[in-house]
Specification:
about 30% helix; mainly alpha; about 100 residues; single chain
Length: about 100
């Protein structure tokens, strides 16, 4: 789809155009480097005498605002949340082992 966008941007929908506008291929992918045939000598880095400055804390990104669920979807969510309080095994009964073997 990216190739299609590169050849003709109007051939993809507006949402994809917005996505591909800031997309650079290979930005998030990493390729494995080929393994060396012989172990390389470890490189010794000079010791740093000064401490690196601490990174400034970044402000957390605002969570996207969603729309509240309504109707059947809201009812399903409330039922699912209520079902979390119900134990999975609600009953216990003793059955003789011989009966299990016979009824198999």
């Amino acid at each position: 789809m990216f190739e299609q966008f590169r050849t003709d941007p109007s051939s993809v929908s507006e949402s994809w155009r917005e996505f591909f506008a800031g997309y650079s291929p290979g930005a998030g992918t990493a390729t494995a480097a080929p393994a060396p045939s012989a172990p390389a000598a470890p490189a010794v880095a000079p010791a740093a005498t000064t401490a690196a400055p601490a990174a400034a804390p970044s402000t957390p990104a605002a969570a996207p605002q969603g729309t509240p669920l309504r109707g059947a979807a809201a009812r399903i969510v409330s039922n699912m949340e209520a079902s979390l309080e119900v134990p999975t095994a609600t009953s216990f009964r003793e059955i003789p082992t011989k009966l299990l073997e016979v009824n198999r």
